[in-house]
Design brief:
Strand 4 and strand 5 form a beta hairpin. The chain has a 5-stranded antiparallel beta sheet with strand order 1-2-3-4-5. It has 4 helices and 5 strands; from the N terminus they run H-E-E-H-E-E-E-H-H. With 191 residues, it is of the alpha+beta class. It has a domain of 123 residues: Cytochrome P460 (Chalcone isomerase). Bound molecules: heme C. Heme C (HEC) binds next to strand 1, strand 2, strand 3, strand 4 and strand 5.
Length: 191
């Protein structure tokens, strides 16, 4: 292809690619609060937990699913290295379960009811220890939770890769083990 035609192609294609690409870093409001990404349901799906609980005692009466998503840019890097890179954003979305509806006789499905949305974000320049936790009570931006919150201690002590619970995400778990980045988690129940 003549050079001029190639250049025209590059100039035409590049802006489209730039718009379509996932922004590779977390976005914050002017006050430094984290924006909840509107498109996280189009990110890479890692796993769904059902009624996962880390304390003794009777299970909750209402069943919930939690869905875990990670941004596609960080997933690409993770596949190469087995580490979650700077800029990684995880979303944990908790949804109500229902066992009644349509033709269902057994089992449960997820409803439209989003009970909770949480994020775990790697931003080395911004957070002490490199990672910040967030809970969203609405779609409004959320402030980072202080290091005294239980999130930090539990993820630090029991997360298998870079303070994340990669041990529960089947495809990611295999990649981490093969990359040698998987840290077998402590067995004792987290506090
Ligand atoms: C007692 C342990 C414990 C505490 C405390 C805890 N988590 Fe987690 N967290 C987990 C486990 C286990 C998973 C895996 C969930 C799954 O497999 O579906 C997880 C997964 C997550 C994820 C998905 C990404 C990742 O890091 O694996 C986010 C986001 C998250 N937690 C946010 C929070 C926030 C925010 C808090 C504090 C308000 C918190 N967690 C407190 C145990 C904990």
């Amino acid at each position: 292809m003549p050079l001029t035609r190639l250049l025209v192609l590059v100039v035409l294609v590049l802006p489209v690619a730039a718009v379509a690409a996932d922004p590779p870093a977390p976005r914050y409001s002017a006050e430094g609060r984290l924006n909840l990404p509107t498109d996280y349901r189009e990110w890479v799906y890692l796993s769904t937990g059902l009624d996962m609980s880390y304390s003794e005692g009777r299970p909750e009466a209402d069943h919930v699913f939690d869905n875990v998503f990670v941004d596609p840019t960080s997933w690409s890097a993770f596949k190469r290295t087995g580490h979650w890179p700077d800029g990684t954003r995880f979303v944990l979305e908790v949804r109500s379960a229902s066992s009644q509806g349509s033709i269902l006789k057994q089992g449960s499905y997820q409803t439209e009811d989003v009970v909770d949305v949480e994020m775990h974000v790697r931003d080395e320049a911004r957070f002490r220890g490199g990672w910040g936790f967030f809970t969203f009570s609405s779609s409004a931006p959320a402030a980072v939770l202080p290091p005294t919150e239980r999130c930090y201690a539990c993820h630090e002590a029991h997360g298998a890769v870079d303070t994340t619970f990669t041990q529960f995400y089947p495809t990611a778990r295999t990649i981490a083990i093969q990359s040698g980045t998987f840290r077998p988690p402590a067995r004792s129940p987290p506090r």
